[in-house]
Amino acid sequence: MDSETKTPEGQPRAEQDRVVIFDTTLRDGEQCPGATMTFDEKLEVAELLDEMGVDVIEAGFPIASQGDFESVQEIARRSQNSVICGLARAQPKDIDTCAEAIKPAKRGRIHTFIGTSPLHRKYQMGIDEAEVLERVTASVTRARGHTDDVEWSAMDATRTEEDFLCRCVEAAIKAGATTVNIPDTVGYATHDEFGALIRMLLERVPGADQIVFSTHCHNDLGLAVANSLSGVMAGARQVECAVNGLGERAGNAALEEIVMAIRTRADAMNVWTGIDTTMLTRASKLVSRVTAFPVQYNKAIVGRNAFAHESGIHQDGILKHAGTFEIMTPESVGLKESSLVMGKHSGRHAFREKLKELGYELGGNAFEDAFVRFKALADAKKHVYDEDIEALVDQEIASAHDRIKVVALTVIAGTGGPQKATITLDVDGNQQTFEAVGDGPVDATFQAIRSLVPHEARLALYQVSAVTEGTDAQAEVMVRLEADGKIATGRGSDTDTMVASARAYVSALNKLMARDARRKPETMLAS
Ligand SMILES: CC(=O)SCCNC(=O)CCNC(=O)[C@H](O)C(C)(C)COP(=O)(O)OP(=O)(O)OC[C@H]1O[C@@H](n2cnc3c(N)ncnc32)[C@H](O)[C@@H]1OP(=O)(O)O
Ligand SMILES: CC(C)C(=O)C(=O)O
Question: What positions does the entry give for Mn(2+) binding (predicted)?
Answer without folding.
Answer: 28, 216, 218, 252
